[in-house]
Write a structure and sequence with these properties.
This protein is α+β, with helices and mostly antiparallel strands. The chain contains two helices and six strands; from the N terminus they run αββαββββ. The protein has one domain.
């Protein structure tokens, strides 16, 4: 576990494309707004994302970081060794307790806590995962559920 503590950064960064909300006209009004079909320029800090960040993504990132070291390359980390956890009383206002309903993935931007435990050790370490907006053309990223 000491090797994980030394080699893994306190914050692990992942980038995903956010789902930007669109403004649409109300069918009942018959009036079209000048912003119909246009997406907002900036996603909120907790916007939904296309896809997700999964425990497999984190395990692969951990393996890549450990592979840079001869001793670390022998450590086996699999998705089942990683899980998202809720940390009560932590200064992470973006993570609500209901966010850990799925402990194997997150589906929005923000900061999330993960617990990593390798099979050979009964102890685990905790790290922060930040899911940030991937730079993209906002005109191409629209909410597919908007009509």
């Amino acid at each position: 576990m000491e090797l994980l503590s030394e080699r893994l950064p306190p914050i692990m960064e992942f980038y995903r494309t956010p789902i930007l909300p669109t403004h649409s006209a109300s069918p009942a009004s018959g009036m079209a707004s000048s912003t119909v079909g246009q997406s907002t320029a900036e996603p909120s800090e907790t916007a939904a994302i296309y896809g997700s960040v999964s425990t497999a993504d984190i395990a692969n990132s951990v393996k890549a970081l450990l592979a840079q070291d001869e001793e670390g390359s022998r450590v086996v980390v699999a998705p089942e060794n990683v899980r998202f956890v809720y940390v009560e009383g932590n200064a992470n206002e973006n993570q609500a307790e209901e966010d850990v309903g799925e402990t194997d993935r997150v589906k929005r931007l923000g900061f999330f806590h993960v617990r990593i435990q390798i099979k050979e050790d009964s102890k685990s370490i905790q790290r922060l995962v930040r899911v940030s907006a991937q730079a993209s053309d906002p005109a191409m990223v629209k909410d597919p559920t908007a009509i």
